[in-house]
Structures are given as structure tokens and as C-alpha cells.
Design brief:
The chain is an alpha/beta fold and 578 residues long. It folds into 3 domains: 218 residues, Quinone Oxidoreductase, Chain A, domain 1, CATH 3.90.180.10; 136 residues, Rossmann fold (3-Layer(aba) Sandwich); 116 residues, 3-Layer(aba) Sandwich (Rossmann fold). It is 28% helix and 23% strand. The strands form 7 sheets. Strands 4, 6, 7, 10, 11, 26, 27 and 28 form an 8-stranded mixed β-sheet that branches. A 6-stranded parallel β-sheet has the order 14-13-12-15-16-18, with helices on both faces. It has a 6-stranded parallel β-sheet with strand order 21-20-19-22-23-25, with helices on both faces. Helix 4 crosses helix 14 and helix 9 packs parallel to helix 10. The longest helix has 17 residues. It is globular. The two termini are 16 Å apart.
Length: 578
């Protein structure tokens, strides 16, 4: 006899009796659904170039909070009037194809499993799924050209093998974590771009530009030495480039540049920097994905105020060298993005779902840090951190310490545990400029600060940029992932190298999505919340509560209480009503 789970998995599974969705009509949790309930919506039929998909699992994400708070003002909604054109949360999804449009039938088939990479670009323009494109908090919806015809082709990823639905949905957030340790910054001058080179009168260094000077089409110069200016002129003249010279670095010149180059400079080179204020001002003119190359040997007179939101969202890169070759600042050699082997790594806001993923990766990585320091303000999450990772760290011979940031400052914690040396790497999973500035203050001189959490663009924090050129410190940030990143996570999960399911803390059916979003806002669960849109009558339940609520499901949890594919199949047997 065919079980319900087997029927659910088959291409002949009947559709649910009604299509339900959680549309979002404005900022605030009250803008999601109608009076706290999902809406009935029609079953869409695919046209020639569309797929009708069933949404099997949706993982709620902390990024959803920003969308809930900002509504149509969110950067990825471009001031959209949600009351007129609603969107829908849910960008971490597992999907199954139900019907295939006629022109796609050679590529796809009913019953085929899919993951989806939500960070979609069309002609360089971000049209992310779960933001600009309504997301997965719906039972059935169409996928068309807006997802399958982007700059990287189709953003859906066919799944092979036997991944659970929850695991498949979690490949996207895990891809974001792994992507954080790949090079996201541009590390060479932009071909055809605009460069600004700032010098200082009286600087005795004979600067060279061994490579990269032939990349920009336009170069603006300020107070360069005659030798370097001659080199720039000759290079541009040989290829018909444009040279603009400014005498002196003044507020008036700054305003002129800001008005003339409204999108900023692709590359800025600051020779012999001395003034934190001047660095702050010049850095405000970096273009998206721009580089800021400091070439110097003298510490600044203070810490510049730097837009930490742009390090995260715009991948602005602060590169450096002591000179005299300006080009030595560029490239992979001086700009690392991976955690320091054998070093000390600190994770701030470690108890959240993404923080836990960072910790799991760090403990399990080969040739990774030997000491892992974690801090959070939530006692429940601290207890989960200790329970979930202490034995794993012991197994991998890693020193693992948990701290309550209410009871001791980050500075005191890190300095005590490192004998005042500081940490080689600090990963900030808390969207707070103050926390980011505090974290920067406990780095080793050659340390790396990774801003994994995003604060709004325009949020400044004091950063010690002197250490960038004096000791090769790194300030880096990351947002989202790519198709390749997610595909690598799918492979690692299928091969048993990674267990995304360990991140799950609570589950719920379609009607529980609103409660799940509220729990996300409140930080109620120390891990990921998974919504199964096809299941009905399943309230939001923490995994430890399953022993009472659904003991038959709890029987199939792992020995450490984590989610399993077997528990998922039993859950579907209990709560799917075809």
C-alpha cells in the first residue's frame, strides 16, 4: 500500500484542496496576510514558458525582518507601493514541479525537485525572489522568465538524490555563510572605470604603478608628484583616456567631484594618508564594488568614519600597501577572506541561526581556527550554543568558549581569552554599527573583521584603517550568495559533508507562518524556523516540544534532538491532507 509520504513525493500527488498565500501589503507584521490569516488564491496555470511549482518548505530568515520593518522602502523593493502591488516573504525554499509549460517540457518534468537561488540579477539589476519577486509563502505559484532568464541564466537549481525538503530550503542560507569566506570584493582596478589618485605635497616616495594603471579610462589626480603625474599622463595618452587634474584636496573640490561623478569612483588611491577626516570624506566617494587603496607608512591621526553598511551591501574594498609599488595592494595575496589557520575567531551574535551555521562550519573546517569564542545576549541561545557545539568542538580538538555579553564586554572577554593579543578574525552577525566598531577594536593588527549582518547604507562607524596599510588588516562584508555557492552546498549535503538540518529549531504548517514570523521578530527560537506550506493543522512547534505534541515525529529526531528526513516524512503523513 502506498503511504501518504510516497504519494506526496510522486508526480501524481493530488493538489491541496485550496491554494493559500501570505501576501505582504505593507510594513509591519500586520501587513502580512489578512487579519493574521492566509488568503485563498487561485491555482495559476502555466503558459508556454512557465512552471507551476509546489512550495514544500520555506525557511524564515532574519533578512525578512528588514523587509517587514521597511516595507516598500526596503532597498530591494525600490519604493514600491505594497498596498497596490504586494510582495511575499520566503526566499529560502524547496520546490517541486507540478506542471510544465509546453516550451519547457524538454528541460523539466512534473515531480522534479528544485532549489532556488533568490539573489537574481537581470541586466545588472537586482530582482530578488522573496523581495521584488513574491516569494515562497504560498502553496503553489508560477516560475517564469523573471527567475529563469537572468544574467546567469536560470536561477532554479534542479535537485538530484534524496535531500529532505527542509534540508533543500536550508541550502540557501548555508550558501550565504560559505560565500562569506570566498572573495566577494573586486581586487583589481576596474577595466574602463574611473580612478582618483590623491597625493600629498612634499611626499618623498617615488611611487610606481607596475600594473593596473592601464585599466581606467578616466583618471582624476590631486597633488601628484611630477614623476607619477607624468606616468599617468603617458599611460592615458597612449590609449586615448581622459585626465582631470585638481590642485589640492579641499571641500570645494570634494563637492565638485561629488556632483560630477554621481556614482562615485570605481577605484580611489590615497598616497601617504595622514588625516582620518580626509580618509572619511574621500571614502564616501567610492562606487559600488569600488576599491580604496591606501599606500602609506604613517598612522592616521584617528579612526575614520566609514560606511559599514556599504562594506556589507556594496562590497566596498579597503586595500593597502606600504609602497612604493601602488599595485602591490591589489590581488589575492594581500587580501584574505578565509579564517586564520590555527588562530582565534570570535563570533558576535553567535546564538542566532546564521551565527550557529558559522560556528558549525568553523569547528568542522580542516586547518581552521584552533580557538572559537562566541558571544550573545540571549541566555537561551547561549545554552543551545553550549549544548549543540561543545562536544562537536571537542571531537575536532577545538577550544570553544561561550560568553554572555550582558555579563562582560566584548573587549574584556576577547582580551582575557587571548592574553591581550586580540582575535585574528571577528565575524559580526548583529546589525549594529556600535557592535561593529567594538568588534574592530579587539582585532589583532593583521586581523579580519567580517560584517555578515547588514546595517543600512549610510551608517558610519569608526574603523582603524591605519592597520590596513601598516599591518594588512582586512575589513570585509558579504550579502547573499550565488548559484555556484548554493550548488556547492547541495553537493556537500548530498555527500554527507554538511548537515544543514542541525540548524532547525521549530516547524509549522501553512497557518503557522504568521506566528513563525512573529517568533522570528521576537527571537523566540535558537535556530531556523521551517514552514511547510502544504501541511495544515500544524501549529508552530519547537523541536523539543514534539515529544508532547507529536511523539511519533519526535521518535525520528536524531539522538541530539536535531531534525531528520525520517521525521519529515512522518510529519507529512500526519499533517498532509490531499
Amino acid at each position: 500500500m502506498t503511504s501518504l509520504f510516497e504519494l506526496y513525493n510522486s508526480s501524481h500527488a493530488p493538489l491541496s484542496p485550496q491554494n493559500l498565500c501570505w501576501n505582504m501589503y505593507g510594513a509591519g507584521i500586520e501587513g502580512i496576510g489578512r487579519n493574521g490569516k492566509p488568503e485563498k488564491c487561485s491555482f495559476p496555470l502555466p503558459d508556454l514558458n512557465q512552471l507551476l511549482v509546489r512550495v514544500d518548505a520555506v525557511s524564515l530568515c532574519l533578512s525578512d525582518i528588514k523587509l517587514i520593518q521597511q516595507g516598500g522602502k526596503h532597498p530591494k523593493l525600490y519604493n514600491r507601493n505594497l498596498a497596490v502591488e504586494p510582495t511575499r516573504l520566503g526566499h529560502e525554499v524547496a520546490l517541486t514541479i507540478i506542471q510544465v509549460g509546453e516550451r519547457l517540457q524538454s528541460q523539466y518534468s512534473p515531480g522534479q525537485r528544485l532549489a532556488l537561488q533568490p539573489d537574481i540579477y537581470k541586466s545588472g539589476f537586482s530582482t530578488a525572489y522573496g523581495y521584488t519577486i513574491p516569494g515562497g509563502l504560498i502553496r503553489f505559484h508560477l516560475i517564469g522568465d523573471d527567475i529563469m532568464d537572468g544574467d546567469e541564466g536560470s536561477y532554479i537549481i534542479p535537485l538530484e538524490g534524496e535531500l529532505g525538503y527542509a534540508e533543500a530550503a536550508l541550502t540557501e542560507p548555508w550558501a550565504c555563510v560559505v560565500a562569506a569566506y570566498t572573495q566577494r570584493r573586486r581586487l583589481v582596478p576596474k577595466p574602463g572605470g574611473i580612478m582618483w589618485i590623491l597625493g600629498r605635497h612634499g611626499d618623498p616616495i617615488n611611487y610606481q604603478f607596475s600594473s593596473g594603471l592601464d585599466s581606467p579610462n578616466t583618471i582624476v589626480t590631486t597633488d601628484l608628484s611630477p614623476q607619477l603625474l607624468k606616468l599617468v599622463k603617458h599611460n592615458l595618452a597612449s590609449r586615448g583616456g581622459t585626465l582631470i587634474t585638481l590642485d589640492g584636496y579641499s571641500p570645494a573640490n570634494y563637492l565638485q567631484l561629488k556632483q560630477e561623478f554621481v556614482n562615485g569612483f570605481d577605484d580611489i588611491v590615497f598616497l601617504d594618508p595622514r588625516s582620518a577626516k580626509e580618509i572619511s570624506t574621500a571614502a564616501s566617494l567610492i562606487a559600488r564594488r569600488g576599491t580604496f587603496n591606501m599606500v602609506g607608512r604613517t598612522p592616521l591621526d584617528g579612526d575614520p568614519l566609514i560606511d559599514v553598511g556599504r562594506i556589507h551591501y556594496d562590497y566596498t574594498a579597503y586595500l593597502s600597501t606600504t609602497g612604493p609599488d601602488i599595485s602591490a595592494a591589489y590581488g589575492e595575496k594581500r587580501n584574505r577572506c578565509e579564517l586564520c589557520p590555527g588562530g582565534t575567531s570570535v563570533f558576535v551574535g553567535a546564538g542566532g541561526p546564521m551565527g550557529q551555521m558559522h560556528i558549525q562550519r568553523t569547528i568542522e573546517m580542516l586547518n581552521g581556527p584552533s580557538t572559537i569564542l562566541t558571544t550573545d545576549i540571549n541566555p537561551l541561545r547561549l545554552n543551545v550554543l553550549h549544548a549543540r557545539f561543545s562536544q562537536l568542538a571537542l571531537k575536532h580538538d577545538k577550544r570553544f568558549i561561550v560568553s554572555n555579553s550582558h555579563e562582560e564586554t566584548l573587549h574584556d572577554f576577547v582580551m582575557h581569552e587571548t592574553q591581550n593579543r586580540g582575535a585574528n578574525d571577528i565575524v559580526v552577525c548583529v546589525p549594529s554599527a556600535g557592535v561593529m566598531a567594538d568588534a574592530a577594536s579587539v582585532m589583532t593588527p593583521d586581523g579580519m573583521l567580517m560584517l555578515f549582518a547588514g546595517v543600512p547604507i549610510g551608517t558610519n562607524a569608526p574603523l582603524n584603517l591605519s592597520t590596513v596599510y601598516l599591518h594588512n588588516a582586512q575589513y570585509t562584508g558579504t550579502s547573499g550568495s550565488s548559484i555556484a555557492d548554493q550548488s556547492s552546498i547541495i553537493f556537500a549535503t548530498q555527500s554527507g559533508e554538511l548537515s544543514p538540518r542541525m540548524s532547525i529549531a521549530a516547524i509549522g504548517g501553512m497557518e503557522a507562518a504568521h506566528d513563525g514570523i512573529r517568533a522570528l521578530l521576537e527571537g523566540r527560537f535558537p535556530g531556523k524556523i521551517l514552514i511547510f506550506p502544504q501541511l495544515t493543522g500544524l501549529p508552530l512547534v519547537g523541536l523539543p516540544e514534539l515529544k508532547t505534541f507529536a511523539p511519533h515525529v519526535a521518535d525520528y529526531l536524531d539522538d541530539d534532538g536535531s531534525w531528520t528526513k525520517q521525521a519529515e516524512s512522518v510529519l507529512i503523513e500526519l499533517f498532509w491532507k490531499p
